[in-house]
Specification:
Low-confidence stretches: 1-24
Number of strands: 17
Number of helices: 11
Structural class: alpha/beta
Order of helices and strands: HEEHEHEHEEHEEHEHEHHEEEEHEEEH
Distance between the termini: 34 Å
Strand order of the largest sheet: 2-8-10-9-11-12
Radius of gyration: 22 Å
Mean pLDDT: 92
Strand content: 15-25%
Shape: globular
Helix content: 25-40%
Length: about 350
């Protein structure tokens, strides 16, 4: 992980506009939910906060002294909101976080509870418990506040044990790794842009596969990717090589019906020119992807890239994501446009 430098984030004061909402466009679109979320996640650290900030996620955070009476008032309210809406909210103690708060543009006051809504990695809205303001003491008032200021996620984490039920009648499963650079680039760009353009879209369901890489040996790790159809082993039509992230799969009744990949192209220097020599989007696989019908660039393998679009350190050559995304965003959009209307699982 890159070291997180000092971040100057805007502090948004709460006023009548925030409490009532300033129109639909001003609401913060939360990045992810979790179908099993029932309460605030209290086992949270600054390292994990850094990862969310670096990944430009939009999420909820509470900072409080655990013995504070205001936390006793707010805790059942925020827990109910988390459970009712399947959203993630993270908790840090005042004692632990006080020395770090300014780095994130968060103003803390000892003896109070602070509720923060992050938007794309920035502390955008900060609500403080006070005697005068009842928002954090009254469930109806807090729910009204949230309705005026946030949009619920369209992507929800599931456990592997949920996979069969979720995909039984058709679902898009997004396999990502929280430590994957391609995923953390795609989430706040391609995926967030799609959600913004499609406010009434059906949900995407997400499996974070980071623990596969962290906790399993190479054989077990590969077996996981094979088992879920990321590789060509059990999914010769729609799997890709040994399995890569990010990977989108449309699955129904145990059948892999389509797939989509972002990035993960192999770039080589051929006769002094940079060429994509291996891509998920090659000529052989083209006929399998009906969703590419209206995409301008359907085949990426064989494309010659200008040197300005490539990073080459002499040992490793890669296609810069800022350059590649203009090809991949239409591809992922087309996949979601085609298959999201066919999903049936509902929270």
């Amino acid at each position: 992980m890159k070291k997180l430098g000092r971040i100057l984030l805007p502090f948004v004061c709460l006023n009548a506009c925030l409490l009532s909402g300033c129109g639909n466009d001003s609401k913060i679109q939360l990045s992810f939910g979790n179908i099993h979320a029932t309460a605030v996640e209290e086992k949270f650290t600054v390292v994990e906060l850094d990862r969310k900030v670096e990944s430009k996620e939009s999420f909820l955070l509470v900072v409080s002294d655990t013995t504070c009476a205001c936390w006793s008032d707010f805790r059942p309210i925020i827990n109910a909101y988390v459970k009712d809406n399947h959203v993630d909210c993270f908790f840090l103690t005042y004692k632990y976080f006080a020395d770090y708060a300014s780095k994130y543009g968060i103003e803390l006051t000892k003896g109070t509870t602070k509720f923060i809504i992050f938007e794309k990695g920035e502390a955008k809205i900060q609500l403080k418990s006070t005697v005068e303001d009842k928002t954090m003491k009254d469930k109806a008032a807090f729910y009204k506040f949230m309705e005026g200021n946030v949009k619920l996620p369209k992507a929800y984490f599931i456990n592997e044990g949920d996979y069969g039920e979720v995909t039984e009648n058709g679902a898009i499963i997004y396999f990502e790794r929280s430590g994957c650079g391609d995923c953390t680039y795609l989430n706040p760009t391609v995926l967030a842009n799609y959600v913004k353009k499609h406010p009434d879209m059906n949900n995407i369901y997400v499996i974070d596969c980071q623990w596969w890489k962290d906790d399993l040996d190479n054989v077990e790790y590969q077996a996981k990717k094979n088992n879920y159809g990321l590789s060509h082993c059990n999914n010769p039509e729609y799997g890709y090589d040994d399995g890569v992230f990010p990977f989108f799969s449309f699955v129904k009744k145990g059948n892999y019906l389509s797939g989509a990949v972002a990035f993960n192209d192999e770039v080589s220097k051929v006769n002094g020119k940079y060429v994509i020599t291996n891509s998920y989007y090659d000529q052989d696989r083209l006929e399998k992807f009906d969703y590419l019908a209206n995409v301008q660039t359907k085949v990426l393998e064989g494309m010659e890239l200008p040197a300005s679009d490539v990073s080459d350190n002499g040992k490793w050559i890669s296609w810069d994501k800022d350059k590649a995304v203009k090809y991949y965003e239409p591809i992922i959009d087309a996949f979601l446009d085609t298959y999201l209307p066919q999903v049936s699982y509902k929270l």
